[in-house]
Amino acid sequence: MRKIIITKANGQKAAFDPNKVITTCIRAGADPVISKRIARQVHSKVRYGMTTKEIYKIVLQLLSDNATPAIKQRYKLKESIMKLGPAGFSFEYYVGQILRHYGYKILGIGIKIQGRCVIHESDLSLESNDEKKWLVECKYHNFPGRYTGLKESLYTHARFLDLSDKFDNEMLVCNTKVSPDAITYATCIGQKILSWRFPPHMGLEKMIEEKKLYPVTILGPSKRELEILSQNKMMIAKDLLDIDIYEFAQKTKISIKRLVNMQRLTNQIIS
């Protein structure tokens, strides 16, 4: 295949790699044969300098034409996380729910804690199975291409040091990729990092996919619906499967038909 230089979300140039299209389509649940066909079609449409955002839209359209709606929605996982809301609380709560499914106990979200020197507002306070307490800093970005860097890792560690009489471990969680310097520093000081594609064997996206913890934004809710779901602490799509539709519709004024459709799509996504 011909080599084409494209523009990444952070502005850097790179060669278009059709294998990445194949991998992400398969991870979303597409058949390998269909995934390869989509990659070939994308490659035929890519032009020099085209942005990854433009390529992403081409893939989504081809998935719409060749795969089920659930596969298309799963492919939009990263975009869905970025729609959780710039206020940050939704992302913190969502991260807490993910980690709860992996054995952590939530002790607090957005609570103020007195350190040795100053008062800190903790994004997340957790307890692991070994009864160790974790200070968790959540960094949310609603634009692709934004790296979480060394500054955020240093900030998290400084806060942990001032609260070290109350916490045993520290963790930095973000919804984008993390910089090599941040990884190097975190590894050196013993700080756990959870981000997009890191750790390589179990990054944020793999934790979500493994236990079907897709955010409610993957269902395409309106701004009003998302606010209502957030107010009701429902940030994971499959939580909608546990509600009494008639009671929830009466309580929230979301129509029964809309809730049924959201439940149907959720079942398709997690199947």
Describe this structure in words.
The chain is an alpha/beta fold. It is 46% helix and 15% strand. The chain is built from twelve helices and seven strands. The protein has helices at residues 18-27, 32-45, 52-66, 69-75, 77-82, 89-100, 150-162, 180-189, 204-210, 223-231, 245-252, 256-270, and strands at 5-7, 13-15, 105-114, 119-127, 133-139, 169-174, 192-194. The strands form two sheets. It has a five-stranded mixed beta sheet, with helices on both faces. A two-stranded antiparallel ribbon has the order 1-2. The longest helix has 15 residues, at 52-66. The protein is globular, with a radius of gyration of 20 Å. The mean pLDDT is 93.
Provide a quick synopsis of the model.
The chain has helices at residues 18-27, 32-45, 52-66, 69-75, 77-82, 89-100, 150-162, 180-189, 204-210, 223-231, 245-252, 256-270; strands at residues 5-7, 13-15, 105-114, 119-127, 133-139, 169-174, 192-194.
Key attributes of the depicted protein:
single chain, 271 residues, five-stranded mixed sheet, two-stranded antiparallel ribbon, 7 strands
